[in-house]
Amino acid sequence: MKLEIFESYTEAVCKKMGVSEDELFSKSKDRYITDARALLFALCDRRGMRKTAIQRLCNMKGADISYTAITNSIRRNSRISDDDDYIRLMERIENNV
Question: Residues 42-60: pLDDT tens digits?
Answer without folding.
Answer: 999 999 999 999 999 999 9
